[in-house]
Amino acid sequence: MIDESAVNGGAVTDDSAVVDEDAVREVYLDYNASAPLDERVLQEMLPMMSGAVGNASSVHRFGRRQAAAVDDAREHVAALVGGRPAGVVFTSGATEANNLALQGIAAAVEAQAPRLLVSAVEHASVSRTARRLADRGSVKLDVIPVASEGFVEPTEVAEMLGGDVAAVSVMAANSETGVLNPVAEIAELAHAAGALFHCDATQMAGRLPFDMQALGADLVSLSGHKICGPTGVGALVGARGSLRRLEALIHGGGHERGLRSGSLNVAGIVGLGVAARIAADERAEESATVAALRDRLVSELRACLPAVQQNGDPARRLPNTANLRFVGADAEAVMSGMDPVAVSIGSACSAGSIEPSEVLVAMGLSHEAAFESVRFSLGRFTTGADIDIAVRATVAAVERVRAMNA
Ligand code: PMP
Fold first, then answer.
1. SS3 label, residue 4
2. Active-site annotation holds for 228
3. Residues of the chain with pLDDT under 70
4. What's the rounded Cα separation, in Å, for the pair 370 and 297?
5. Is 172 in the pocket of ligand 1 (CB under 6 A)?
6. What is the pLDDT of residue 181?
7. Tell me, what's the pLDDT at 23?
8. Cα 390 to ligand 1 centroid, rounded to whole Å
9. Residue 350: its pLDDT value, please?
10. Contact by Cβ (8 Å): 263, 67
11. Is the C-beta atom of 377 inside 6 A of ligand 1?
């Protein structure tokens, strides 16, 4: 269990706690997995959970108050990604938003056995959904390769497109490397071929400007807990006319324009709205601060350790993310040696064996290189002191693991 008083990098502090100088100080550098809930978000959610009564669909005054709070959130969520409030479909998170986009399109055009183009570095909620649709015969799936720097090249997309492509799905920023994709160019190509363009902006929204209208994205997914909002709430935002091209996956009372039935999670939605509002207001300043801390982390690690390589294009990536390979040091051993500094590694246990990160392998890294790569992701509450601790912990862990292998 996490001792909140020792958590740095979290929004929750306990001033009354007796500070134990010897206590291990936890440092959280795993924002891309889940960012801490901002105290300001929590404060606006609490009344919705304790005092508020009523179903947002009810026509009486209690229901109308709930619906007004949802509408307010809809405005903030739409504004964060340059969308229309009427295009926001609230979901349980980006996983559901991605499923609704891909499965929803496939269900609507299944009879034509269309093609779906999906990049090789998508989150599992896109890549596995697409594979499942292809296995079922609902679509023909083509995977768009990425350059060794981690981004999709529009020329690859252009070569793969044709009149039979129903949709193209390419994420805005990759969760493992932070690398950004040329979304506007890909959207333009997709439209020229008559395809819908879906963009998973879960890691991008709130970190860098993202304007779906200017970029030409038809469907955009995002999630609360990546922007210091609550977990378990997100949205699919549709440009004008694009939601009509989807079929619902969840049927019932016809909520959310019939695309996502189920009584609305008002407290969660309010939290998502507040998180979106704060992210939009503070994004520019926060990104600059976070990028400076991330750059210091990387340069200090490189100064202290030989053979540190960066994965992904360092010039075209999120301000908060660094994916580093410590040559000769197994990432899992490094990560456990860094505890209580929290980072993450891309490899995952699949069917009983450890698999390297699909993202890093798609970029052409060897399995060995992928198994030696660690992701550091910073955010709103990361401090300079956190970076000092993280550098010391990483250097010690990498040196220990390398010495064991020597
Ligand atoms: N897409 C991306 C790019 C992500 O990073 C994540 C979360 N790791 C998701 C989708 C899924 O989001 P959620 O946890 O809200 O389902």
1. helix
2. no
3. 1-23, 347-353
4. 20
5. no
6. 98
7. 62
8. 25
9. 54
10. no
11. no
Q: Residue 384 in contact with residue 293, Cβ under 8 Å?
A: yes
β-partners of residue 168 are 117, 197
Residue 228 and residue 41 in contact, taking contact as beta carbons nearer than 8 Å: yes
Closest Cα to residue 162, out of 194, 186, 130, 197? 194
Helices (H) and strands (E) in the chain, counts: 12, 15
φ, ψ at 201 (rounded to 5°): -105, 25
Report d(CA 124, CA 184) in Å as an integer: 23
Q: What is residue 406's predicted lDDT score, i.e. its pLDDT?
A: 79
**pLDDT value, residue 3:** 36
pLDDT at 375: 97
Name the strand (E) or helix (H) holding 59: none
> pTM to 2 decimals?
0.94
Dihedral Cα 44, 49, 53, 56, nearest 10 deg: 70
Alpha helices in 305-383 (DSSP H): 331-338, 358-362, 367-371
Which H or E run includes 136? none
